[in-house]
Amino acid sequence: MLNRFGYPALAALVLLGACTHEAEAPALDAAPAAAPEAATETFSIRLFDKTIGQMVATTQGNDISVDYEYRNNGRGPTLAEEVELGADGLPVSWKVDGATTFGNEIHETFALTDGTASWTDTTGPGSAEKMEPTIYIPQNGTPYALAVYAKALLADADHKLPAWPAGELSLDELEHVTVDGAAGPVEATA
Asked: Is-contact 143 126, C-beta < 8 A?
C-alpha cells in the first residue's frame, strides 16, 4: 500500500509503555506554595519486539515538555515539543522544533494572546479570533499531543471541541476492555 508520497505505508503496531512518578501531597503549613514537582512519563517506541526509540514527557504545573525520537531503517523523527496549558486545560502556547522522518526541518508555533490565536506551520502563518473554547492541532506534533487532546475532550461536556487551524475534535467511547497491569488486570475504556 502506498501513501500520497509514494513511500510504502508502515503497518506496524507501536507499543507505548509508560512509567510515571507520582508526587506526594505537600504538608499543610503556612509556608508559601512551592512550584509543583515535575512528573515525568517515559514511553518506549517498539516495532516488531524491538525498542527503536522513546518519548519522554515532563509536566510541571501547566507546562509540558516532550522529547520524541525513534529510528527505523535509519530514519525517524526527532522532535522537541513545548506546550503551555491555560486555566481551562487548553493550549495557550505550543512549539515544535526538530526534523520529520525524512529529515525536513520543523519549526512550528502557536500562541493564544488576548483572544487571538496565531500559528505558523509548514503551510505558513495563520490566525483566528477565539469565539469559544478551541484547541490547537499541531501539524507535526508528537504522539503525546493525543494525551493533551484526550484530557481536553474528557473535560468538555459533549467531548467535542472546534480546532485551529480548522475542523473539530471529538472523543467517542468505543468499548470497555481489560488490560494487564503491573498489579493485575486494569479496566479501561477505549
From this structure: no
pLDDT at residue 15 in the model? 30
Strand 63-70 versus strand 78-85 pairing type: antiparallel
Domain map (residue ranges) of the chain: 37-189
**Which tens digit of pLDDT belongs to each residue from 60-106?**
999 999 999 999 999 999 999 999 999 999 999 999 999 999 999 99
Predicted confidence at residue 14, as pLDDT, reads 31
SS3 letters across the chain: CECCCCCECCCCCCECCEECCCCCCCCCCCCCCCCCCCEEEEEEEEECCEEEEEEEEEEECCEEEEEEEECECCECCEEEEEEEECCCCCEEEEEEEEECCCCCEEEEEEEEECCEEEEEECCEEEEEECCCCCEECCCCCCCCHHHHHHHHHHHCCCCEEEEECCCEEECCCCCEEEEEECCEEEEEEC
Rounded distance between C-alpha atoms, residue 81 and residue 142, angstroms: 7
Distances (CA, A) of 67 to 95, 99, 125: 12, 12, 24
Q: What is the pTM of this model?
A: 0.77
Residue located via cell numbers 512550528: 108
